Peptidyl-tRNA hydrolase
Amino acid sequence: MVGTDGLALVVGLGNPGPGYAGNRHNIGFLVLDELAGRIGGKFKSHKAGADVLEGRLSGSRVVLAKPRSYMNLSGGATAGAARFYKVEPSSVVVVHDELDLPFGQVRLKLGGGENGHNGLRSISKSLGTKDYLRVRFGIGRPPGRQDPADFVLKDFTSTERKELAFAIDLCADAVEGLVSLGLEAAQNKFHPLS
């Protein structure tokens, strides 16, 4: 559904290494791990600077990519993979954490601002456009006066962890819906009516 030849590049944002694995900022990696399980494959190192997995989700061809650079430099690997697989920016799907949504809420959109998200800023710069698809996973706002930059690098709370598997599953469903149904139909299916 996404793209003229039906191939979507799904990029999950996060930071490499075990020290970051459970951070809020790494939700993109966690969602892609769930999608990789659904495809039934393993990520392999790619020359674009990302770990990639090619497969099908709901009958649609996808390349899952986890940049090996730090979050703030995600654009290089994203643009490199898009060039290698000949995917236009409008068929690039970026899964990322979103401070402006309550924990676990998922929203789909095309283009827009980066809202201070350095991973998105890097991708917009490297792709030369903001017109790529986003799957926004709500992590909520930091409590009190905590700096958002510190908040995103903290692990989910024990309360959040109880709901995390369900929320990741929902987000993975939304990615599948986006690549197989298209943006508008997926929004109608996954956005609450409120």
